[in-house]
Amino acid sequence: VQSNVLFVPDESHTPCIVKATPAGLYLASLEKAFARRIWGVTGPSYLTKPVLIPWSALEYGLAKFPLWGWVRFDVASAKVTFFVRRKVAAELLQTAGQPLPWVSPAG
User: Fold this and answer.
1) Nearest to residue 96, comparing CAs of 20, 17, 16, 14?
2) CA distances from 90 to 31, 36, 50, 62 (A)
3) This prediction's pTM
4) What CA–CA distance (Å, rounded) separates 100 from 16?
5) How many alpha carbons fall within 13 Å on the CB side of residue 66?
6) What pLDDT, in 10s, does the model give residues 46-89?
7) Distance between the two ends of the chain, CA-based, in angstroms?
8) How far is CA 104 from CA 21, 97, 99, 101, in A?
């Protein structure tokens, strides 16, 4: 899935390829976009290397104001927080067999 990911505290959108597997969440910047970046010009941030974050290292839940409609992901061990749009997060979590934070366990 191609999606913008919002990282904190940078608060800039990072165009990413986001994939979910049973092993974890995979994030990578689009190679074409990364190659076209202009140094010294403010714009989107990019991941310099692909990242696989194991589910065991992730905590996630619905974001609060002002990011309603997003899901907040925290990697406590690295002190990293990022946000993914709720629709995209739902697709990713379902693909990986992870629970949706806005659905009760009873259904």
Assistant:
1) 20
2) 25, 30, 21, 11
3) 0.78
4) 21
5) 2
6) 677 889 999 999 999 999 988 889 999 999 898 888 999 999 99
7) 26
8) 22, 15, 9, 8
